[in-house]
Specification:
2 copies of one chain form a homodimer.
Chain A lengths: L4 H13 L3 H11 L3 E2 H8 L3 H13 L3 E6 L2 E6 L2 H25 L18
Antiparallel strand pairs in A: 1-3, 2-3
Helix pairs in contact in A: 3-4
Chain A binds a DNA duplex (30 and 30 nucleotides) through α4.
DNA sequence: AGCTCATATGAACATTTGTTCATATATTTT
DNA sequence: AAAATATATGAACAAATGTTCATATGAGCT
């Protein structure tokens, strides 16, 4: 019953890689197929440097893989695990935001959303 | 092309909720079953305030759900989507760290690790 | 050889995030 | 009623993170 530390750190790194809008835009593009840095940079309208930094982050946790062709570097989603995680996460947030919307008719507040409280103010 | 902004923000929030060691410890405990705040606080040896803050984060993205019983609040994993995502992520990082280890046998302790590979730690 | 193109990386800065402490709210008990 | 218990939340500060700018590496071309 070992030390869970390494597992925790690796999970942390993995999820953290996916917890940024730019990196999510990258992986969503990569779900459509392999792309090199320029293509990503152009599609997202963001600098090459920024894209490269984010790709380094996605590489480090094994979310994407690399194929070099001459001076081009093509990136793609690492494996089916990652694809599954992404598609399930998309399903989850889609369902969850629907459930939020149906509640927000009542609470016009933004930000915290619904926070599952049936604690009526008496 | 539809506006992907809301989807991106929700994915970002969701993954970000899972990208912290303490919150991961919480959800891993919750995978074993429903627990209230004190139980989580005691199991992890961390303050009630800290656990509550992190639970708020996990609630806001729909990763956990809540059941109030008197003055106790029981938390559990929100649904099978989230359970699946967690178990696949665990599989992914397990495989990935194995593949890293098998490469590090070659690069002995000292040098820069593997060449232009995806081994990069910051 | 030089030059250009594609990508990677380091440093600096501004923003964000996690943790702690103090306090608020809600429920039960005395 | 007050006190005790369980949880939530706000403010403040340290640490981590994303972005930009400048520069480095490396491959193809003339």
């Amino acid at each position: 019953m070992g030390n869970k530390e390494p597992l925790l750190s690796e999970l942390e790194n993995f999820f953290q890689a996916l917890s940024d809008k730019t990196r999510l835009e990258i992986v969503l593009l990569l779900l459509e197929g392999e792309k090199n840095v320029q293509e990503l940079s152009a599609s997202l309208g963001k600098s090459q440097s920024l894209i490269s930094h984010h790709l380094a982050c996605l590489r480090n946790c094994g979310a994407v893989k690399v194929r070099k062709v001459g001076k081009f570097v093509y990136y793609s989603i690492a494996d089916d695990h990652v694809k599954d995680i992404l598609s399930r996460a998309i399903d989850h947030v889609s369902e969850y935001s629907k459930s939020i919307l149906s509640c927000e008719i009542v609470s016009q507040e933004k930000g915290q959303g619904v926070k599952a409280e049936q604690t009526e103010t008496r």
